[in-house]
Specification:
268 residues; 35% helix; two-stranded antiparallel sheet; 9 helices; five-stranded antiparallel sheet; alpha+beta
Length: 268
């Protein structure tokens, strides 16, 4: 915890590992993010600092994120460069997104339809990759999608990710922790009912498409809100977008498509 409360110790820790600290660029309940330069190469990186209450080995959320960054490799998942650890702190050195996150870009700039369509497709590909490997993200929202250019986004922040099935028995696992950004949570999560994580990810993808379509977060009573009353900021295929949002955000879990089905729906 000392590195959390004593900036000089944090700066010293990074220097010992060859990184020069610039500034904090993000903060959340699961960790803080800083921009750094690798001294020997002059390259810029981001460092996510995760501090455990006891030890990192005892913190399931820190271990989940570390495991994800070590094991998941995909063109649209943020790539980890290096892992730095102490007994109570894990620091993931990862790619630095020059344009920030999707929430910042969409709410502050006039993005076009091509970017909206591309961003949603690339996030869906990343989630499909995770699901195919038995991992659910569980925290899909615009702040966890990083923007590298007008043609590339990547999914980040795997602190809530979880296995979808028991590795020993092969049986599906139900989640019993109810975390994440409220307006992107599926109804079964909000009701604090044990839930299957993959369908909950699909609901969140529907909310993400809503955000890209309306340029605002879904309201708390979503999906009861009539999409026809929403003023879209994107002009391409509004009817198609509305239909897909409604399909993804079906209250009945069994009515939601899988990621592979979603990719087919999106491309057709």
């Amino acid at each position: 915890m000392d590195m959390l409360t004593k900036p000089k110790l944090w700066n010293c820790f990074l220097r010992q590992h060859g990184y020069l600290l610039h500034q904090q660029i993000g903060a959340g309940s699961f960790g803080d993010v800083f921009s750094v330069t690798k001294a020997t190469a002059g390259t810029r990186w981001a460092v996510k600092r995760l501090v455990a209450r006891r030890t990192i080995a005892e913190d399931e959320y820190i271990m989940a994120e570390v495991k994800a960054f070590l094991e998941l490799a995909h063109a649209h998942i943020v790539e980890a460069e290096e892992l730095l650890t102490t007994r109570t702190c894990a620091c993931i050195v990862m790619e630095l997104a020059p344009l920030g996150n999707l929430e910042m870009v969409v709410t502050s700039t006039d993005v076009d339809d091509a970017f909206v369509n591309l961003a949603f497709h690339q996030v869906t590909l990343a989630v499909d990759y995770c699901h195919a490997r038995g991992v659910a993200h569980r925290d899909i929202n615009p702040s966890n999608v990083l923007v590298f250019s007008s043609k590339r986004v990547k999914l980040a922040d795997f602190g809530l990710c979880t296995p979808c099935y028991d590795l020993t028995t092969g049986q599906p696992l139900l989640c019993s922790d109810y975390l994440g950004q409220d307006c992107y949570l599926a109804p079964e999560v909000k009701k604090c009912q044990p839930f299957a994580a993959r369908p909950a990810d699909l609901w969140s993808l529907g909310c993400l498409l809503y955000f890209l379509y309306v340029r605002a977060h879904p309201p708390s009573d979503f999906p009861d809100l009539d999409l026809l009353t929403c003023e879209p900021c994107a002009s391409s295929s509004p009817v198609r977008h509305k239909k897909l949002i409604s399909t993804l955000c079906s209250v009945n879990v069994l009515d939601r498509p899988t990621t592979s089905q979603l990719i087919e729906l999106w491309l057709n």
